[in-house]
Amino acid sequence: MPQVSMTVNGRPIKADVEGRTLLVQLLREKLGLTGTHVGCDTSQCGACVVHVDGKSAKSCTLLAAQLDGANITTIEGLAGADGKLHPMQEAFRDNHGLQCGFCTPGMVMSAVDLAKTNPNASEHEIREWLEGNICRCTGYHNIVKSIQAGAAAMQAAK
Amino acid sequence: MYDFAYHKASSVADAAAKAKGNDDAKFMAGGQTLIPTLKQRLARPSDVIDLAAIADLKSIAAGGGAVTLGAMATHASVAASADVKKAIPALAALAEGIGDPQVRNRGTVGGSVANNDPAADYPAAVLGLGATIHTDQRQIAADDFFLSVFTTALNPGELITRISFPVPEKAAYVKFPSPASRYAMIGVFVAKTAKGARVVVTGAGNGVIRIKSMEAALDKAWSAASLDGIAVSASACNGDIHGSSEYRAHLISVMAKRAVAAAG
Ligand SMILES: Cc1cc2nc3c(=O)[nH]c(=O)nc-3n(C[C@H](O)[C@H](O)[C@H](O)COP(=O)(O)OP(=O)(O)OC[C@H]3O[C@@H](n4cnc5c(N)ncnc54)[C@H](O)[C@@H]3O)c2cc1C
Ligand code: FES
Ligand code: FES
């Protein structure tokens, strides 16, 4: 059994995993970080998106063993130690960017990556970026509004 | 998912040594096709050999009339590369149109080409530009590489190290994506190269194909109008729930004209 060491939300962890253990299984089942969701088995829905070394990736389509030494951030790692929400989380709340909330952790993680890569993304670019994040509730309008507001707030906070 | 033994290769030679004599071993690039396949239990490798730690497979270089992509260059890195955008903009645009941002962050050119999905994008550029596939054993011309659905000229245990794309005079790729997966319903790559025009279709069903009648017409005169009246037979195309073979055949003509117009 491979042993992996990685940093998850700033905390170093070590775990014994099987070759086939997915990152999302390690996060949810071993580390108890159940904010990262699983919404499909075809790598298409994006509910499982986390950051691997700062870039968004689908944790259902990565092996834990691949990520030995990596720096992982999940939705639980976005808020400050004092519980203050990340500007993107705040923006989703302010703009009613969620209904049932199932897709939201992946949406927010994907949105934070976009805001870092392309801080002034147009509405069209935001919609293109969400290709891999499916929401069955909102119709996306308020998600797009949330991301515009969140990206602006992230810029302002710099 | 069935279990397997996971290995990290430290170099090309190490990866080849780990695969040698073991037909049940599989290389893994970004895992963006392999992991979904394993999750569906459509494959049962005994060993998975991860290539991610081999730094020299990630390079992207332009020069000497070609763009050379290391097998482990991700779609996102190709799409963002200033060198690729300058030398072969159609190649950067193709990479930008694959799947979604998360797939592009992990998926690689080597994995896409080795996999040879009949609706994948990269094989269209490889064949459309007459690229050369370099492996740890030899060089393979694009025209000899793609054999049929999910089948290539690679031997068991043979590793793609890099792919070198000659810079064309002009080129463009236009795809009609499946709205659900982003894979090509039909994608057409056209290029005006030193050795003549090339027109390559992906998504028709059996892997990438060249449309020689269109190439001949473009060799006479490079313009979308040259393709007027050149139909592709529906028997060359698959029909499925996404579209009939007649529909796909029609799309080929439409996408080919759009691609020539886009190439300018
Ligand atoms: C949701 C989703 C949407 C997608 N949409 C598209 C799309 O629109 N268009 C498109 O073209 N593709 C699409 N893909 C596929 C994507 O482009 C993958 O990156 C690609 O198919 C290969 O993945 P990979 O590089 O991670 O290779 P892996 O999955 O790691 O490997 C794929 C295969 O290639 C072999 N292999 C890998 N590297 C090498 C090498 N260097 N030498 C020899 N063999 C090797 C492996 O053994 C395996 O059999 C999509 C995938 C997903 C999950
Ligand atoms: S769970 Fe659906 S993409 Fe990962
Ligand atoms: S809020 Fe319910 S799936 Fe997006």
Task: Summarize, please.
Chain A has 158 residues and is of the alpha+beta class. Chain A has 5 helices and 5 strands; from the N terminus they run E-E-H-E-E-E-H-H-H-H.
Description:
- The complex is a heterodimer of chains A (158) and B (264).
- Chain A contains five helices and five strands.
- Chain A has 158 residues and is an alpha+beta fold.
- Chain A has two domains: 3-77, Roll (Ubiquitin-like (UB roll)), CATH 3.10.20.30; 87-156, [2Fe-2S]-binding domain (DNA polymerase, domain 1, Orthogonal Bundle), CATH 1.10.150.
- In chain A, strands 2-1-5-3-4 form a five-stranded mixed sheet, with helices on both faces.
- In chain A, strand 3 and strand 4 (55-58) form a beta hairpin.
- In chain A, helix 2 (87-94) packs antiparallel against helix 5 and helix 3 crosses helix 5.
- The longest helix of chain A is centred in the C-terminal third of the chain and has 17 residues, at 141-157.
- Chain A is globular and about 45 Å long.
- The model of chain A has no long low-confidence stretch (mean pLDDT 97).
- Chain B folds into two domains: 5-35 and 59-166, Uridine Diphospho-n-acetylenolpyruvylglucosamine Reductase, domain 3, CATH 3.30.465.10; 170-263, Enolase-like, domain 1 (2-Layer Sandwich), CATH 3.30.390.50.
- The relative contact order of chain B is 0.12.
- The termini of chain B are far apart.
- Chain B has eleven helices and 14 strands.
- Chain B has 264 residues and is α+β, with helices and mostly antiparallel strands.
- In chain B, the strands form four sheets. A five-stranded antiparallel sheet of chain B has the order 4-5-10-6-7. In chain B, strands 11-12-13-14 form a four-stranded antiparallel sheet, sandwiched between helices.
- The chains are: A alpha+beta (158), B alpha+beta (264).
- The A-B interface holds A 2, 18-20, 22, 41-44, 46, 49, 52, 55-58, 61-63, 65-66, 68, 110, 113-114, 129, 131-133 and B 1-6, 8, 28, 31-32, 35-36, 38-40, 48, 50, 52, 76, 99-103, 105-106, 180-182.
- Bound molecules: flavin-adenine dinucleotide and FE2/S2 (inorganic) cluster (FES) (2 copies).
